[in-house]
Amino acid sequence: MGKPRREHPCNWGYLSFGLRFLTRGLALAGGLVSMISRGPFGSQWFCGSAVLILHGKGWESRVGDICLKLPLGLHRAPIVLGIGVLQKCAGLIMGWLLGSAVNGKLLLLPGKFLLLPSKLPVLLSTSPQFFSLQMMKFAWDNYKLYALGKNELRPLTKNGHIGNMFGGLRGATVVDALDTLYIMELEEEFQEAKKWVEKSFDLNVNGEASLFEVNIRYVGGLLATYYLTGEEVFKSKALELGEKLLPAFNTPTGIPRGVINLGSGMSWSWGWASAGSSILAEFGTLHLEFLHLSELSGNPVFAEKVMNIRKVLNRVEKPQGLYPNFLSPVTGNWVQHHVSIGGLGDSFYEYLIKSWLMSDKKDSEAKKMYDDALEAIEKHLVKKSAGGLTYIAEWRGGVLDHKMGHLACFSGGMIALGAEHAGEERKQHYMDLAAEITSTCHESYAHTKLGPEAFRFDAGTEAMATRLSERYYILRPEVVESYMYMWRLTHDPKYRQWGWEVVKALEKHCRVEAGFSGIRDVYTTTPTHDNMQQSFFLAETLKYLYLLFCEDDVLSLDDWVFNTEAHPLPVNHTNFKASVQQ
């Protein structure tokens, strides 16, 4: 299993650019040129689309991509001059790029020409990739400045937030951001995060922790960073934390309870969960991480725990082939018949297809469960609005609720990922369904290019939040996640265009003086901020935006699967099911 490509995906070290300079009948041509060699890990790339206008009696412009590599620290200066060297047969032409650093983000000046003695003006417009990288740096720098060691940053009040989801664990943003920093080659920032994990990440805590959240954010983040870097500190922390989660499975059925005290090992169900039930999306979103814990530790117990969950689910009757969201960890029966592809259900389905892919397509049980579930979902929940928008409704004991949550917008990407491996007669059908759902989610972003927590399709409403309590946006990633998958699998340029709309909207509406904040109403152009920079914004939203504009072999979908927090885990060539049953 090779590591992901370490080069930046902007035609590393080379600039393919045609130059034509006509002066007094003299024609000069340039071809594929060596611009900047692959510098050491730790330099900073700036990329964009460059328009060079060359003067002469018959002058013209040429457009291409340009990348500049500047030493770390230079981009922090008030004024930044980047040097671009274009090699021609006549010698060297120097182009200077003028920009300024504002709040840690390099802003190049579009439309402004800097005339050089060579009469060579240069125009550079920043790329979406560049912006997502700089947004990540801005989010991290402010978290480090005001909240390092806390779980999340409150950017308006410039302090940290701990919350009660993680049972006393700290540094959720650190662990969630590790792999994103590494993938973006923000080396200085990555080393800051690594140092905190080494020196300050304490697992000896007591408190009420969400099994689900600790697994996807902490265990997933540590595992991914270990696989990316090979550094033992991340592996050892992941295994130690994984051990602390095992007591949650001590139930009559082996279905884990949702809450665990990481110190005492006591576990219980959420107080709001119906009749002491466990949540489908929580106990169904452990499989990827726990199989890797077994592989790295040599201890089959992690794999055995999640394989047992499969046994319980295969044994219980499923209404109309659907999986309700609440299951009793005592009896193994459904508690109520509420089905959702959004919150409470979502990532269970995602982990079925991804378990099959991660097993190198050996886990046929997961593939069958996914195929059967998707067939039932399409039959009973997929609907088309009066305006022609395809959506996935929620199901309450046979009665449909015609709404989609933002969380359900991951499903476009999931269905596309599964379609790649469907039979030929079904592949195009599922790709069309994935495209339609992704388009519907894009429609929910129509007003400010950011979408509400939930949107409805009733009483003439089309992909709009009709309740004030559903209008907020908390920096969620699911829509751009689907854009990334749809781009990778179709290369339809509209998905990159839609992603760029989100980048600009985040900058316009969510960026504040000291970080990024969710907003309370996506339908106003002067939003009120919620004062929370979610850790998943760094783990997921910015990573997916960055990957959307990368080459396909940067974290190739053939070699990596993303957990539901966007932490990449390698495709595994061990048949865990066979090894567990032996």
How would you characterize the overall build of this protein?
Its EC number is 3.2.1.-. InterPro entries: 6hp_glycosidase-like_sf (IPR012341), Glyco_hydro_47 (IPR001382), Glycosyl_Hydrolase_47 (IPR050749), Seven-hairpin_glycosidases (IPR036026). The protein is α+β, with helices and mostly antiparallel strands. 38% of the residues lie in helices and 21% in strands. It has 16 helices and 27 strands. Helix 13 (478-490) packs parallel to helix 15 (535-548). The longest helix is centred in the last third of the chain and has 21 residues, at 424-444.
Distinctive features:
582 residues; alpha+beta; 3-stranded antiparallel beta sheet; 27 strands; alpha-1,2-Mannosidase; signal-anchor; Glycosyl_Hydrolase_47; calcium; 6hp_glycosidase-like_sf
Give me the side-by-side strand order of the main sheet.
Answer: 4-3-8
**Structural class from helices and strands?**
alpha+beta
Q: Kindly provide the radius of gyration, computed on alpha-carbon positions and rounded to a whole number of angstroms.
A: 25 Å
- Percent of residues in helices comes to 25-40%
Mean pLDDT: 82
Tell me the fraction of residues in β-strands, as a range: 15-25%
Biggest sheet descriptor? 3 strands, antiparallel
Q: Give the CA-CA distance, first to last residue.
A: 25 Å
Binding site for Ca(2+): 564
GO biological process, one term: carbohydrate metabolic process
Pathway: Protein modification; protein glycosylation
Membrane topology: Single-pass type II membrane protein
